[in-house]
Amino acid sequence: MIRTLKPLVILVVVVLLLPGALLAGTGVRTGIRVIHASSGAVHVDPGLGDLGPELKSVFKYTSYKLIKQTAMDLDRGARGRVRLPGGRTLEVVPLDLTGRRIKYRIGIFKRGTRVFGTEVLLRNRGSITIGGPRFKNGYLLFNISGTRR
Q: Which of 20, 25, 34, 107 might form a disulfide with 91, Cβ 3.0–4.6 angstroms?
């Protein structure tokens, strides 16, 4: 009996000594959808079906077209970048993964200079849509989602 308990006790001690961050995971599956919103003919891109009601209730536009969709696995502090129309870059950085929340730093850069910056706190498996710069008779919107790994 002692022979079988000894490996189990060693395993429990090793697990308890590992840093909490290592056990909890330090990464986030981050989804980014770049959307062109305008006041053209009423239309919601089929790729935005799950967001349609939210977009219509929050924003004043009538047309929403999905321009780009990407997903990336980011560790805490790692930068994820997406090229945007107009020579811009969207950058997202997961800063903190505590409890059921994910804190992101979000920035838009043009020619290497930050033109917009904010931080948001998302629920795990949640998303936020933020407004961006003018683009082709409308505006860019960014839907950012996060799920802890």
A: 107
